[in-house]
Amino acid sequence: MEKQSERRPESEPVIYARSSEESWLREQKNKQKRAAIPHVKKDKDVPWEQSAQAYRKHFAHGGLGNRYSLAPIGSMTVAKQLLPPLGKGGKHRHYNEALLYIVEGEGYEMHDGVKYPFAAGDLVCVPTYCIHQHCNDSKNWVNVFYCTGYDFCDFLGIQSTEQIEMHPNYRPPENSQILKDQKGQVVGYKTPEGLEIRFGLNEELQLLMDAKKSGQFQGEVRNNYDFYVRTLSEQIRWRQSAIRIIKGNERPWEDTRMGRIKYLSHPNTNSGLLLFDTFIQELPPGGASGKHRHVSEEVHLILEGRGYDFHDGVRWDWDKDDVVFMPVNTVHQHFNADTRNPARFVSVQSRLYHYMGHGGFEHMEDAPK
I need a labelling partner for 308 at 20 to 30 A (CA). Which of 142, 217, 318, 345 fits? Predict the structure, then answer.
């Protein structure tokens, strides 16, 4: 330090920086927050909410300000959504990609004006910056479980949801004045305090995205700069042609060291998702999974059965419709408490960690034969 000071011109002041200490304190607070939140959210304890898009139950809420407020994970938003018979959600668009696992019912997605039918057991892939709407064309309810990388895009400064059309049963906050356009369409509302909340397409952002499409890369890549010019064209083409519906009944079951698993999205499979792995796991009557640990966060929706997990030696009981969270670096194993019937759950694991060099599994114990 003395030698460094000798080389410093006298006119340059020295200040004390405490950024490292502040980051240590912040991480300690985050650990305390995570430790205080249960790893199982009971479905019956989570209220339904009405938003501009649909009726939902939020199990892990998006946005950096909500981090570790509902769940011990921070890389994804997790929710359930209901579509009434012959109903639909609000039409919208955002930078973050999204996945929807269809728990029950059938209907279709509208993605940039193209119709994609879905049924129970399917995985819907919503690529980044796609105008989409979830629709129910049956007389039965559609039950959806979904995850997005909202928090990640918020951190990057590109979180922007354009609410283009409200869902048909939308109700503004109490005592608010509904705002309509010249055609009589609802475009927002005014609060009793006079604050105007308006929905609709972001015209400035639309012009920006249209400009990106106008110049497609031609010719050969001659240098490292050309690589990135070509990348823009490749990613635009990928978004336009990406797989939107993965049929669950067409995916194979695999007998792995972790147990019986059916992958819906995976780095080795083609899908419209880049940030999430999704799979179904089945636990035999009275059986268990293997035991492992990974850096990435993971979340389960219990589809059938009852049982429990051990997370770092702590037991967490779960039932059908509950949501189970595995925070970062958690040793976990799953057990079926029913000796007569299998248990099944759908799992979503963040692939962000994989791209950062932390995507592998530490396998500790095989699933019982």
Answer: 142
